[in-house]
Amino acid sequence: MSDIFLSYASADRERAKRVAGVLERQGWSVWWDRSIPAGRTFDRVIEEELARSRCVVVLWSKASAQSDWVRTEAADGARRKILVPAMIEKVEIPLEFRRVQAADLSDGKVDSGSPELDSFFASVARCLGTAPPTAPPARERARSRLKLAAIGIVLVLAGVVGLLKHREAQEQKVASDLAAASAAALRAVLDKGEESGLYWPFFLSEEGGSDLLQQSVLLAVESVRRSRSADGENALRRGLGFLVRPSRVLEHGDEVSALLLSPNGDYLATASYDSTARIWETATGREVARVRDVRRIALSADGKLLATASEDQTAAIWDVLSGRQVRTLGQGDDVVDMAFSRDGTLLATASYNQKSARVWDLETGQELARLVHDRAVGGVLFDSDARHVITRPGGATQGPVLVWESRTGELVQQLAHDNRPVQDFALSPDGARLATSAADKVRIYTVGQWDKVITAESPTSKSALAFSTDGQKLAVGGQERLGSVEIISPSTGEMKRLAVHKGAVRFVAFTLDAKHVLSVHQGQTASVWETDGGGELMRVWTSDQAHNSRAPAAFSPDGRFLIAIGESSVNYWPLFPADLLEEACHRLTRNLTQAEWKAFLPGERYRKTCPSLP
Question: Which of 7, 281, 305, 514 could form a disulfide with 58 if both were Cys (CB 3.0 to 4.6 A apart)?
Answer without folding.
Answer: 7
